[in-house]
Design goal:
Layout: E1 5-8, H1 18-31, H2 38-42, H3 49-59, H4 66-84, H5 88-98, E2 104-108, H6 112-122, E3 131-134, H7 146-155, E4 162-166, H8 169-177, E5 181-185, H9 191-194, E6 201-203, H10 209-212
Parallel strand pairs: 1-2, 1-4, 2-3, 4-5, 5-6
Helix pairs in contact: 1-4, 4-6
């Protein structure tokens, strides 16, 4: 029996994509006459795509149109390879190494299309993971624990034996609420922003993960 399972968020963890996604969203919103800032979108990282896009539209007193998201995805398709450059090969090697000892699950609040864009940029597929769990499969998104609870059930592993790698405060809150070890990865947000979120470990890089994990 495995001692522990690993659950990985995608955006901001396996691929440093949050600012690339924000740039794509900015460009899409500009076509709708909305001038935004990159930080407007990054502030909602990890909250799920519907909240991510709708919150910024509302911030500028505009009604959210799903076509805005679709257009942003079109732009993001060209930005994702740039975000993955330099991390794809190392990331695949790390995951392959971890798979020798742990089942690994991909957990993402991002839309299905965005997940596949990211995986393609990384040279991975959904089949690479032991299981894939998406926000569209649960009733409540982060910071609720539903996503991670479903992932644990899917793998047949108790939450207490799962470790979640997250890059956002709401993701870390979800992991802790699910009764799992929460590992904060600095990147999307600085350590100063993550330190008050519930976490058991804080890493500057994924390469530190193996040494950080408890037995």
């Amino acid at each position: 029996m495995h001692k522990r399972a690993l659950l990985f968020d995608l955006d901001g963890v396996l691929i440093p994509s949050e600012r690339a996604m924000a740039r794509a969203a900015q460009k899409a919103y500009r076509e709708y006459g909305i001038e935004t800032r990159c930080e407007d979108f990054v502030a909602h990282a990890g909250e799920g795509d519907d909240r991510y896009f709708a919150a910024v539209a509302q911030q500028y007193d505009r009604e959210f149109d799903p076509a805005m998201k679709a257009r942003a995805y079109e732009y993001y398709t060209t930005y994702a390879p740039e975000a993955a450059r330099g991390v794809a090969r190392r990331g695949r090697a790390l995951l392959l190494n971890l798979r020798r000892d742990y089942p690994i699950n991909l957990c993402s609040e991002a839309g299905s299309a965005r997940v596949d864009i990211n995986l393609d940029a990384l040279g991975l597929s959904r089949g690479f993971f032991d299981s894939v769990t998406l926000g569209s499969e649960v009733s409540h998104g982060k910071p609720a624990p539903d996503l991670y609870q479903l992932a644990a059930r899917r793998m047949g592993i108790a939450p207490a034996r799962c470790a979640v790698v997250e890059d956002t405060p709401c993701g870390l809150t979800a992991a802790r609420a699910a009764g799992m070890t929460s590992v904060a990865l600095v990147g999307t947000f600085p350590a100063s922003r993550l330190k008050d979120a519930p976490h058991d470990y804080m890493l500057a890089s994924l390469v530190e993960l193996v040494d950080a994990l408890p037995p």
